[in-house]
Amino acid sequence: MVRDARALAAALEDEGIRIVSGGTDSHLMLADVRPVGIDGKKAEAVLDEVQIAVNKNQIPFDPNPPSAPSGLRLGTPACSTLGMDEAEMREIGSIIGDVVRTPDDEGAKEKARGRVSDLMQRFPLYA
Predict the structure, then answer these.
(1) Domain spans of the chain?
(2) What is the residue-wise DSSP string for the chain?
(3) What pLDDT is stored for residue 127 in this prediction?
(4) What is the CATH code of the structural domain delimited by 2-122?
């Protein structure tokens, strides 16, 4: 799980999303999405549209109000439990980056839904 979280954190940083602590030593991370031009509330909503579950979250010294914080809280336990590994975490990071950079692009969201669907077919919740 920690390896997966580190891979996801690195992938998000590659997408221009800042990991608040510079990485992670656990299954969770706090990401600042302001560098890609979105707030946590909008990012949470658009990721939900493509079936990726995250939580909006304030970051330390957050200039934004709690109703539209600057960050997202992400974790890897569900993905790890399904058998996903670092390669899939990089794919998920790429999907997240694509969606949060272009939250109003329906084509990008449709492509992201397909990528998420492909992952879930490879790693089904139930056998």
Answers:
(1) 2-122
(2) -HHHHHHHHHHHHHTTPEETTSS-SSSEEEEE-GGGT--HHHHHHHHHHTT---EEE--TT-SS-TTS-SEEEEE-HHHHHTT--HHHHHHHHHHHHHHHHSTT-HHHHHHHHHHHHHHHHHS-S--
(3) 74
(4) 3.90.1150.10
